[in-house]
Amino acid sequence: MGVNIAAINMEWLLEYLDKNLEDIKGDYICVSNVHTTVTSYEHPSYCSIQNGGLMAIPDGGPLSSVGRKRGYQNMERTTGPSLMGEIFEISAEKGYRHYFYGSTEETLELLYKKLNENYPGIQIAGMYSPPFRPMTEEEDKAIVERINEVNPDFVWVGLGAPKQEKWMAEHQGKIDGLMLGVGAGFDYYAENIKRAPEWMQKSNLEWLYRLVQDPKRLFKRYLVTNTKFIWNAMIRGK
After folding, report:
1. Strand runs (DSSP E) across 106-235, as ranges?
2. Where is the secretion signal located (predicted)?
3. Total domains in the fold of the chain
């Protein structure tokens, strides 16, 4: 459907990031799912953003399932929240520094507290909740300087798709850290919402768990985008 989804698994990704982190700072990783893939298929400019970063990883189970059917047997679902957890686990040992851009002040406060409780020794270089309006050029320049001053390794961007991917693309080469758009990842680690049980994640049913949690917002999205994905990627083979 036009998006260059990386045919990877978590083990490969963690090894890649560890070996290449210094060289890939300033770039971004898209955490891609059915919704972002269908949006990319319908909007070429957004597709260019998905393909314009370091890679687009298969957050959505259907993406890795299609990849395996097309011959990439080692491809596995690599979710944003799972990647966050894997990196948080080794952060104290590796000395990784983290910056969190997005969400609300309340969620960031909770996130700070929970991360320090659950990952002793984690270095949180900074956090920023941007205003719910377009930022001025001066404001944007100031936040870029603020982020770069604290020298983060990872800049986690939680603005939701497609806003977070657009923000990362606009700041490619300007931010001195690896940017990753992780959607609801902030809420998971702030413990505002719970992730699906492991068996649902492995069965590609995490979308159903999220739907039950937030049916009003997600029902139409899942109904429309899932149908379009099944038709285009699975039936038509695009």
Report:
1. 123-128, 154-158, 178-181
2. none
3. 1
CA triplet 190, 193, 199: central angle to 5 degrees? 115
Q: Hunting for tokens 């002040």 — which residue is that? A: 105
> Are the CB atoms for 58 and 75 separated by under 8 Å?
yes
> What distance in Å separates the CA atoms of residue 168 and residue 178, rounded to the nearest whole number?
10
Cβ–Cβ under 8 Å, residues 229 and 34 = yes
CA distances from 78 to 7, 44, 84, 139, 213 (A): 10, 24, 10, 34, 22
Contact 225, 62 (CB under 8 A): no
Question: Residue 157's domain spans which residues?
Answer: 10-235
Phi-psi region of 160 (alpha: psi -120 to 50; beta: other; left: phi over 0): left
Mean pLDDT of the chain: 93
CA–CA dist 134, 14 (Å, integer): 34
In a domain, 4, yes or no: no
* pTM of structure: 0.91
Best CA proximity match to 2, nearest among 63, 54, 60, 59 = 63
pLDDT in tens, 48-68: 999 999 999 999 889 999 999
In degrees and rounded to multiples of 5, residue 200 shows phi and psi of -70, -40
**178-181 β-sheet, strand order:** 55-58, 28-32, 178-181, 154-158, 97-102, 123-128
Residue 47, domain member (yes or no): yes
Indicate whether 29 belongs to any domain.
yes
Mean pLDDT of 12-18: 98
Q: Is residue 153 part of a domain?
A: yes
